[in-house]
Specification:
With about 700 residues, the chain is an alpha+beta fold. It contains 23 helices and 17 strands. The strands form four sheets. Strands 7, 8, 11, 12, 13, 14, 15 and 16 form an eight-stranded mixed sheet that branches. A five-stranded antiparallel sheet has the order 5-6-9-10-17. The chain has a two-stranded antiparallel sheet with strand order 1-2. One of its GO terms (molecular function) is zinc ion binding.
């Protein structure tokens, strides 16, 4: 027993008396009151796969020399797997690092260091007690608390400072700030994490009819900030230093089976590095894929009239667990305009075309500052403190399924990934082709617009924003979305509703609703237990969240098993196993094979919904069901799907959109929301710098 934990031996018991001091998290610096809270937080937000550490940065020549000298460890079968000069053993895992785009450290002028393992130069020459622009730690912590954590209104902050002054002035002391204006001015002068917002306006420029509809004459305003500045701010964040990949890699377990974890462990990042490496000037650089995400959200609770369309940006080098924990790894870079019109014009082909063109043109304009850095590396300081030559590229796009239809110019009931005909979406495809930009352009050259629309689901008049950037194909970059495709789509909107429909068809309206009452009582009777979500009213409530669907998935099958046929039970069983497999943080070749097996069995047993009359027309009109077939490929291309899920952007809505909107005075709130986001980013960057 440590000396800091004294014993209480009264009545023969030995009770630990814990130190009353609060315990800090060494990764994100949150404070906890007991060891159990710290342990739970660490396991949830900072758990790392075994053996996955920051990759070494040796050159291919150094590795070859080590291999020739016998310094490189051999694999379990007596030989090093893969390309021996590039294979690195870490614990019980093997990492095959890309030999050319390996992120070699350099100095501030771009000259590679002779010793890659040398210590990085200091980030700053500031002294330990330098809290600029704040005068002390108390002043910084006060600003961070009242603005970021307590989210006080300006009136309440002024009132608090007045009370503080009234209690201190008689003793010759002053509060940390003279007024709320003093506090805001101090936060605005923080030199870290600054990315100013700008705006531009767009409007319809086509031919106007005699009486043009309002959407043709309206102006649409977009707010954005320089994405290159945002990326540089994230790269300079030392909080990512231990959870950041600097090179594409392939990871193998002791049996030499491939593992897929973060984005740079997939085949897509390696293939991109091969393409970039064709230019000799990029050798030794660090590939930095930029993950984009967008999703509309509603902020007003009662009316539902206030909608915003934010665009988020993240670094693909950051590990998935950091992105899911929202440790400043995702920034909002733009707010897109949402064109609206009267109902009589909603289905107008000109309006639909203008809406798509506006979306792609605005994204292209917002991301244009990144174009030059996608062709030629720039020297940047990375989270571990080293300078590196960084070359950027467009990475996966995170969006829900309905958003993908707009992004990829694919009509509804067509797959956004492959050109499978919408009449055949019920088939379990194997070895299918993948949509590409060249494929779409080739079809546009030989087919009319109507034929492209009807036979291939392509809108040839729309040019995706990704076409203006090198090595970017929007069809390839659309990754799977666990939340809207699998959890909410296939499970909650399909399987749960199909079971309900089967019970009504089998037993009639009266008996069927009585059975559903029994099922709801079973769901409500689930005992309180960690990891189980209570459903006190059963499944019959309107506002479903992703967490609700995940919670229902855990207890749904035991609640309905007595009321459905065995084949229906098996179909739900295999689909749930598929769901839990694809949600794992570490995917292996065995996992991918099991996922494929579960899909095959699910497709076999789901025919019960056809034979019982629930889906008499089959599943050809359900692209969400078809999308599950692409998850083995998504895993091999982009790593574990839970790092590229729209649940990340849905959660970010709270901090980036909804809370800033609630803090505004609701009169032209967007400008106030932008200011709140900018101050929040500055406070987070200042804390990371002060901690470093």
């Amino acid at each position: 027993m440590p000396a800091s934990l004294p014993m209480n031996r009264r009545h023969g018991r030995e009770d630990r008396v814990y130190n009353p001091l609060r315990l800090p998290c060494l990764s994100c610096h949150r404070i906890f009151r007991n060891l159990s809270g710290l342990t739970k937080h660490t396991n949830t937000h900072h758990a790392r796969p075994h053996g996955h550490t920051l990759l070494p940065h040796e050159t291919a020549i150094d590795k070859e020399a080590h291999h020739m000298n016998g310094d490189l460890d051999e694999g379990p079968q007596g030989k090093t797997p893969g390309n021996a000069p590039q294979m690195l053993q870490e614990g019980r895992l093997y990492h095959l690092v890309h030999p050319v785009l390996n992120g070699r450290p350099c100095d501030s002028n771009g000259k590679f260091l002779e010793d890659p393992k040398s210590q990085p130069p200091p980030r700053t020459e500031s002294t330990a007690n330098d809290w600029t622009p704040f005068t002390s730690r108390l002043q910084f912590e006060t600003a961070d608390f009242v603005f970021q954590h307590a989210r006080m209104s300006q009136g309440n902050i002024n009132h608090l400072l007045e009370l503080w002054a009234a209690s201190l002035i008689p003793y010759g002391a002053l509060p940390p700030f003279a007024s709320v204006q003093h506090l805001l001015e101090t936060m605005d002068s923080i030199p870290f994490g600054d990315a100013p917002w700008t705006s531009f306006k767009a409007r319809y420029t086509g031919d106007l009819p005699l009486n043009p509809p309002p959407w043709m004459t309206a102006e649409y305003e977009f707010a954005h900030r320089d994405p290159l500045v945002c990326v540089r701010n994230m790269l300079a964040n030392p909080d990512f230093s231990d959870e950041f990949d600097i090179a594409p890699y392939r990871e193998y377990d002791p049996s030499l089976k491939r593992r897929y974890t973060n984005l740079l462990s997939g085949d897509w990042a390696w293939d991109q590095a091969d393409i970039i490496a064709k230019d000799p000037e990029t050798h030794g650089a660090m590939f930095c894929p930029l993950i984009l995400g967008s999703d509309k959200t509603t902020v007003s609770v009662a009316t539902g009239q206030n909608e915003y369309h934010p665009v988020y940006l993240s670094l693909g080098n950051v590990w998935n667990n950091v992105r899911r924990a929202h440790r400043n790894a995702i920034l909002v870079v733009a707010f897109l305009s949402i064109p609206k019109t009267e109902k009589r014009y909603a289905n107008d082909a000109r309006f639909r075309h203008f809406r798509r063109e506006l979306f792609h043109a605005s994204l292209s304009l917002i991301l244009r500052p990144l174009h030059a850095s996608m062709l030629k590396p720039e020297i940047m300081r990375c989270p571990d403190g080293h300078f590196r030559r960084v070359i950027y590229g467009l990475g996966p796009y995170i969006a829900d399924y309905m958003e993908q239809i707009v992004v990829t110019a694919i009509v509804q009931n067509w797959c956004v990934t492959c050109p499978t005909r919408r009449q055949n979406l019920q088939d379990l495809c194997e070895g299918f082709n993948i949509r590409t930009r060249e494929y779409a352009k080739a079809l546009a050259g030989v087919c009319s617009r109507k034929k492209l629309w009807n036979d291939h689901g392509i809108i040839s008049a729309v040019t995706p924003f990704s076409d203006e950037f090198p090595r970017a194909d929007i069809h390839e970059l659309i990754a799977g979305d666990l939340l809207h495709q699998i959890i909410k789509g296939c499970f909650k909107d399909h399987l749960v509703d199909w079971v309900f429909a089967y019970i009504l068809l089998e037993h009639g309206q009266t008996k069927g609703h009585e059975i559903w009452g029994q099922i709801d009582r079973r769901l409500a009777a689930v005992p309180t237990f960690p990891g189980l979500r209570p459903f006190h009213q059963g499944r019959d409530f309107k506002q479903w969240t992703g967490d609700d669907s995940k919670g229902l998935m855990k207890i749904f099958l035991p609640a309905v098993v007595d009321f459905i046929p065995p084949d229906m039970t098996r179909a739900i069983q295999y689909f749930m196993e598929f769901c839990y497999l694809v949600r794992r943080s570490i995917q292996t070749e065995d996992t991918v094979a099991r996922i494929t097996h579960c899909l095959e069995r699910y497709h076999h047993y789901r025919q019960i919904f056809v034979t019982t009359g629930v889906r008499p027309d089959g599943f050809s009109s359900l692209p969400l069901q078809h999308s599950a077939c692409h998850y083995p490929r998504h895993i091999r291309q982009f790593g574990a799907p839970n790092g590229l899920c729209s649940s990340i952007t849905e959660s970010k809505h709270i901090k980036a959109v909804k809370e800033p909107w609630r803090r505004s005075n609701k009169y032209k709130p967007l400008a106030q929301m932008l200011t709140t986001n900018q101050r929040t980013d500055k406070l987070a960057a200042a804390r990371a710098d002060f901690t470093e």
